[in-house]
Amino acid sequence: MGLSGAVLLLGNLHFVDPEWAGLANSPGVEKLKEYRSGSREDFIARLDGGEYDDVVALYRSNESTNVTGPFDEELVGHLPKSLRYVCHNGAGYDNIDVGACTKAALTQEKGIQVSSTPKAVDNATADTAIFLMLGALRLANIPLTVLREGRWGTAKLPMARDPQGKTLGILGMGSIGRNLAAKARAFGMSVQYHNRSRLPASLEQEAADAVYVDWDTLLATSDVLSLNLSLTRATEHIIGREQLARMKKGVTIVNTARGKLIDEEALVEALDDGDRIWSVGLDVFENEPAVHPGLIANPRVFLLPHIGTMTHETRKSMELLVIDNIKSALAEGRLLTRVKEQDGMD
Predict the structure, then answer these.
(1) Superkingdom of this entry's organism (predicted)?
(2) Could you read off the pLDDT of 56-80 as tens digits, one per residue?
(3) Which positions ≥6 away from 305 have C-beta within 8 Å?
C-alpha cells in the first residue's frame, strides 16, 4: 500500500536534479522540500519547530552528514512522526544508527525504514580494489615517487610481485566481494572467502567458484586479503594485532570498505616488523580525512583518498537508485534496497 506526503532532500545532488524535480509528479509525492545547506543545530530546530511534520520520506547521503551530522540516536529522536523512509545514498551506512531507526519504528504505525545503494557501487568499488591490489603487489608507490622526483635512472627500484597464482581471500562476500572475485580470476588468482554464512552454490559460482573457508584459514593462507564487509560495532577493528599476527607471511592487505575495520596503529606496527606484511592498499582510513602518519611514511603502502565510487557513471547510478527507492516506497509501500538489519520489520 502506498503513502502520501512530502519528501525532503538533505544536502546536494550532483547528477539527478531533473529527476529530483520530477518526483513532484510521482504517486504519493505531495511536496518536495530541501535542506541543502545549514547546520545540525538549525536542522534540529526546524524539526522541532514542525517545518517537516508532513515529511514521509527523505533523501540523505554520506555527504549530507556535513550538513546535519550523523543520523545518530539523538537526531532520530527529533525526526517527525510522519517519517517512514530514510533513503540513503551510499553502500555504507555506518553514519546512520539503524538500531535507533528500528527502535523508533516500534513507536510508529509503520516505522522508519532505511535503504542504501548496493549493486550501484559494485563495479567501481571492485575496480578500485583491483587497482589497489595491483599497485600494492607491484610496490607502485616507490617507482611513482622516484619518477616524480626525477630520480629515475639513479634510484634503485624494487622487484615486485605478480597476482598470477596467488590466493585472494575476501572477507565479506556480498555483491562487491563477488564482483571482485570474478575480476580477480581474470588475473589468474584463486579465490577463497569467509562470510557470516556460506553462500548458496549459485552465488559461489558467480564469484568465480570461490571456496568457503573458516576465519583462521582465511587469515593463514591468503596471499592477498581484501576487506569487503560492512562496518558495525561487531566488525570494528576486526583486523587488529591478533589477526595480523595470524596472517600468512608476506600478505598484501586491501581495504575499500571502511577504515575502522582495521586498527591502523596495529597495522603500522606490523608493517614496521620486518617482512610480515609485503604491502598494503587502502582507499579508506580509520579517522579520515586524517591518515596515520605511519601509513603515509611507509613506501609499501599504496594510498587513495576514498575515491572508490568516484566516477560519473557510478555516482549517477547511486543517486538514481535513491530516487527509485523513494518512488517505490511511496507508490508501493516498499524499499527496493532496504538494509539487511531490517529484514524482519515487515
Answers:
(1) Eukaryota
(2) 999 999 999 999 999 999 999 999 9
(3) 283, 288, 289
